[in-house]
Amino acid sequence: MTPVELSRTVLHAVRRAVDEGELRVAALPERVLVAPPGPGGCGDYATNVALQLARPAGLPAQKVADVLRPYLLSAGGIGDVVVTGPGFLNISLRGTAPVDLVREVLRRGLRYGHGDALAGRVVRLNAAREVRAVVQIDAVARLLRSQGALVHAGCAGPLDAAWESVLGVRVDGVPDPVTPIHDDTAAAIDVRPVPAPADPLPLGRDAARWALLHPAPHDRPRLGDEHLVQRESNPLFRVRYAHARSRSLVRNAADLGFGGEPGPVEAQALLQALADHPRVLLGAATHRAPDRLARHLVTVADALLPLLPAVLPLGDEKPSAAHRARLALAEAAGTVLAGGLSLLGIDAPDHL
């Protein structure tokens, strides 16, 4: 069960409690936040929905949590629910949750984490005629569309031809599928990051876009050759290298006659990063912050790299269930890296 699915499960439990008269709430929340437990918590995820509902329900948060607990326990995929602190619900998923997560990533492919949370929302993005602003608006539009929003991205003036040809920037576009936006109620948002201190074009498309998108919009980007070096000190290199290695392992495993099969793997940091991906995409879209996605991809890559040496059998060792499970997890992580890079407008080559 992914975080998005768990959020829907919690919201469904709230609706059932309201429908059966155990909670009296005039308006239900549109969505429920689930996140890794904080200090004093336990399990796989925690939610503060009971604290949100306490005042509208006229009950202490701990009482609301006690009401919701049996509804959550009856949901498929949830193994245990513990109430801690003032009313936090700590949720433990069933033992097959990591297996289900890897299967879900492989099933969705590059669209894992895409959703419809912003479906029906119309957004008009406006950028200054400045290279970082137009790269930012291009990435923000991609993120918003990945969550179902209808987006029109415009610029204060005509684009420099090199911004389009070298950096792959597209503005004044309409959402996919191509549908003109004629909605006077559309949210109008100005995208105004700190301008680029120099011309990023000499870096080329991928390094230039990363250099402009990886820092937060209010931070001054650096446009030096550090984005081109193929070393661990370069976050973009680590992300692309981790992806390329994952693809190489899939090819090498096929040469050895086996493929990936989701199964138990001791790689909690990587599994957590994959599970967080839908939440990160939604947050990056909602807050118009592609830097959140860029940093998340570094987290995924750094969690994947230690797993890679153990994926293939060594010497005369025969492929085992553990090798197949690690291969499936590596392939899933590579898929997340490729999908995330594509939303930033950056290529994810199979070979480096």
UniProtKB/TrEMBL annotation:
EC class (word): ligase
One of its Pfam families is: DALR_1
Gene Ontology cellular-component annotations: cytoplasm
Instruction: State any GO BP term from the record.
Output: arginyl-tRNA aminoacylation
A GO molecular function held by the record: ATP binding
Stretches assigned to the DALR anticodon binding domain? 239-352
Entry keywords, A to Z: Aminoacyl-tRNA synthetase, ATP-binding, Ligase, Nucleotide-binding
Its EC number is 6.1.1.19
Q: Sorted alphabetically, which PANTHER family does this protein's record hold?
A: ARGININE--TRNA LIGASE, CYTOPLASMIC, ARGINYL-TRNA SYNTHETASE
Q: What is this protein called?
A: arginine--tRNA ligase
Q: Which organism is it from?
A: Streptomyces toyocaensis
Per the UniProt record, the lineage of the source organism begins with: Bacteria, Bacillati, Actinomycetota, Actinomycetes, Kitasatosporales
